[in-house]
Amino acid sequence: MSYAGLLVMSHIGTILRPMRIIAISHLRAFWKNNLDAEQPLKSWVDEVKKATWRQPADIKDQYRSASVLKNRRVVFNIKGNDYRLVVSVAYRYQAVYVKFVGTHGEYDAIDAETVEMEH
Fold it and tell me: Are 69 and 56 in contact (CB under 8 A)?
């Protein structure tokens, strides 16, 4: 992991910039209706914006409880295990795409490997 302002080189010499989060607006909309999720989600956003993930192991190093799935999907536990966040990670482009955010119960009703955010 590296922090904003520091450049990291990939294994092939490409400069990696900090991760970009696509669809933060979905997270904001969620925490407006789930006020206890606001600070944990904001903390996650701040940490991810400083990260440079090159592979799933980099995520696991930072978030031991994260679950790495197929299709570049990762599930994060938010606020302990009250909420779940599913993202797709494009390591080459240093981008994280929000695919789902919800309660643990809502998460149980979806397929984390294929779910997409509703617009």
Answer: no
Using an 8 Å Cβ cutoff, are 40 and 76 in contact?
no
The neighbour count for residue 94, using CB atoms within 10 Å, is 19
Whats the size of the chain, residue-wise?
119
Q: Which two tokens stand for residue 5?
A: 């302002």
Choose between 80 and 76: higher pLDDT: 76
pTM of the model: 0.86
Closest CA to 21 of 56, 63, 49, 58: 49
Q: For position 119, what pLDDT does the model report?
A: 62
Give me the pLDDT at residue 117, please: 85
| CA angle, residues 63, 19, 51, in degrees to nearest 5 | 45
